[in-house]
Amino acid sequence: MQNEQETKALRRKFFKYTLPSISAMWVYSLYTIIDGIFVGRGVGPNALAAVNLAMPFVNFIFACSVLFSTGASTIISIYLGKKNLKSANEVFTLNIVSMIIFSIAILILSLLNLERLAIFLGATDSTLPMVKEFLRIIISFNTFFVISYYLEVIVKTDGFPYFSIIGVCLSAITNIFLDYIFVIKLNFGVAGAAYATGISQVIACVFFLVHFLKKNSTLKFVKFKYDFNILKRIISIGLPDFITEMSTGVVLFIFNQVILNRLGENGIITFGIISYVNTLVLMTMIGITQGMQPLSSYYYGKGDSDTISKLFNMSLKTVAFVSIFIFSTVLIFSSSIVNVFIKNADVDLFNYSVYAFKLFSTSFLVVGYNILISGFFASIEKPTKAIAISLSRGLVTIILSLFIMTTLFNDLGIWIATLVSEILCILISITVLKRNPIT
Question: Where are the transmembrane segments (predicted)?
């Protein structure tokens, strides 16, 4: 009876952290999705293609934030589990300073090489001005991008998971409102969408900073000595999740190049729509994983392997349910989803987009397990195992699958390559998990 009550209590705690994490990741996904909807409807399909070409770099910025945020959150949670508040505060402060320095370096290097960056991402003569304009504005706000996400993650680690929802919702509402004003009313084009996203990140950043200046926050900004060993530890733990997020940008970049060569700009428009939904799915799975991670790290710090095992099984069941629900929803509403982005497109483009979307969505049934297992190993400070899974999924299997599938099945291979890649990777994930049992 007592064991059953403990399981119920753990389940409540799991969902207390997981639901805000999923909500927060959804909101971060909605930033780009809303931009896509307003750009597609308010500017046109070519502008949607331009934004999609710029997205790999936006993913890079977000992945950098994940790199620092996940690692710091794990270490801070372990210190809190050991009741070592002093070290937790020092890591919290050191990490935010490191992120600011890193983001400034990205800002300088990117703006100095803006046109080369746009061309590298695949900008064509018709999309180059829009790609450059969108990138220039997003890059200018990149410090707020990385810091706002870090603070949102640490707010949950600090014991205020639902406070994070308020912050990201406030930011999302700002983004939607400004998209409508800048893109629809003022006709600022892709620049309007970029400004709306950037300003919304400023709002989120300020909102979360206020929390850590209040008396009721456990974590505080403190004086610290710059310890590169701590920074190395942060990066090593955060690297698997960085690869998971970065893989979104890498895959998007590679797919863009293959699609441009085989299908042209109309293919980019189709893939742009799929990418927005795929990002939402990936963020949902990352949200489940990040909801599990602080608890897993905390119990790892306490040495409670039995609770860690229960927590992992709860996470697996959650991923299974969410995967089936998302896939079913896409199959039923695929036409409606495509219509949201390209309502006024020609019939051939619309029908092809629906067809490709349904094929690609089969990968949604598998992707969550790979992300969860990788994130789990990171949460118990086994980054090597996590990196092996993330590298396999994010780089090796998807690149091999894309080129093999397109060679065998031509254009059809583009849309089934991700499913093949995720299936191959899940075999690797299961193998690693069996060789490294939880208990």
Answer: 21-40, 60-80, 92-114, 134-151, 163-184, 190-213, 234-255, 267-288, 319-342, 354-379, 386-406, 412-433
Two tokens, residue 243: 């690869």
Mean pLDDT on 114-142? 93
**Measured distance CA(22)–CA(283) in Å, rounded:** 7
> What contacts 340, CB < 8 A, 6 or more positions away?
37
Asked if 259 contacts 356 with a C-beta cutoff of 8 angstroms, the reply is no
Please report the pLDDT score of residue 158 as a whole number. 84
Q: Which residue has the tokens 């974590």?
A: 219
Angle at 118 between CA 255 and CA 367, to 5 degrees: 30
* Model confidence pLDDT, tens digit, residues 189-216: 899 989 998 999 999 999 999 989 888 8
Helix axes 85-112, 142-157, angle to 10 degrees: 160
CA distance 102 to 80: 26
Q: How confident is the model at residue 33 (pLDDT cuts 50, 70, 90)?
A: confident
Euclidean distance between CA atoms 133 and 114, whole angstroms: 9
CA distances from 367 to 21, 110, 168, 248, 344 (A): 18, 31, 25, 12, 32
DSSP line for 11-73? HHHHHHHHHHHHHHHHHHHHHHHHHHHHHHHHT-HHHHHHHHHHHHHHHHHHHHHHHHHHHHH
Q: Supply the pTM of this predicted model.
A: 0.73
Amino acid at the residue 177: F
User: Across all residues in the chain, what is the average pLDDT?
Assistant: 87
Where along the chain do its domains lie? Answer: 2-435
H runs (alpha helix) in 263-410: 265-302, 305-341, 347-360, 367-379, 383-391, 397-409
Q: How far apart are CA 145 and CA 162, in angstroms?
A: 20
Nearest to 314 by CA among 17, 72, 76: 17
Question: Tokens standing for 203?
Answer: 């709002």
User: How confident is the model at residue 297, as a pLDDT?
Assistant: 83
**Can you tell me which residue has the tokens 């927060």?**
24
Kindly report, residue by residue over 313-329, the tens digit of the pLDDT: 889 999 999 999 999 99
Q: How far is CA 412 from CA 33, 148, 282, 424, in A?
A: 25, 39, 22, 19
